[in-house]
Amino acid sequence: MSREHPYLSIVIPAYNEEKRIGRTLEGILEYFAKRNFPFEIVVVDDGSRDKTGEVVRSFINKGFAIELITGERNRGKGFAIKTGMLKTRGDYALFTDADMSTPVEMFERFEPYMSRGVDVIIGTRKTRDSYVGKHQPFYRETMGKVFTLLSNSLLGLQVTDFTCGFKCFHSRTIEPVFGSQRIFGWGYDTEIILIASRKGFRVQEVPVNWFNDEATRVRLLKNVFTCLEELYQIYKYDRQGFYRL
């Protein structure tokens, strides 16, 4: 992996991921080492209380071009994503979950759109050509559908899947989108897609394969009211014109 200007930056938010982050980094490094372009990895440790940082530093000590950003306290996945994306140097920046529910090989489905200069490319599990190898529990899938319906209806969007954690942004979108991001909880996905849309960037959904990880950190029932509150806050920010500045 070269330390020259990267074509691709990969951002991984991590919170108490010591058991998974090593395997995830190994998989990403192995995959992209076979590609004919320079890349970088940015791991954002969102205030972990375990040895997540130590595991990442062990890779850095081996000479891999990985940057570790460490937060003093847990501020939410949305904050970790924002922090990491604003640190990227690549022509494109891809963020992916530490559990790799979307296999890194799905990046190949994004590449045709990247070569055409599409601004924002987001994975979807909800179209005909997508594949869900292991489903979420019924209540989580149902709440996800309700959240998607509410988001589209309230904000005037037409997105099939807001919350798939596999999204890629052209460098020209990074500061306008993530510099304007205000939501750091579960609603951050909806907010960044809305910001990109309001600022005139083209958003392209691409079907991906996806496998539910039963060890996920998301506790949907616990966070459902927070999600609704965040969605309403996004609606208010949009009505006030914050996302068009």
Descriptive overview:
The protein is α/β, with parallel strands linked by helices and 245 residues long. The protein has a single domain, classed as Alpha-Beta Complex (Spore Coat Polysaccharide Biosynthesis Protein SpsA, Chain A). Helices cover 40% and strands 19% of the residues. It has 8 helices and 9 strands. The strands form 2 sheets. A 7-stranded mixed beta sheet has the order 3-2-1-4-7-5-8, with helices on both faces. A two-stranded parallel sheet has the order 6-9. Strand 1, helix 1 and strand 2 form a beta-alpha-beta unit. Helix 5 runs parallel beside helix 8 and helix 6 crosses helix 7. The longest helix has 20 residues. The mean pLDDT is 93.
**Quaternary state, please?**
single chain
What proportion of the residues is helical, as a percent range? 25-40%
The SSE string, one letter per element, is: EHEHEHEHEEHEHHEEH
Show unreliable segments. Answer: none
Which fold name is given in CATH as the topology? Spore Coat Polysaccharide Biosynthesis Protein SpsA, Chain A
Shape designation: globular
Give the C-alpha Rg. 17 Å
Integer average pLDDT = 93
Compact description:
With 245 residues, the protein is an alpha/beta fold.
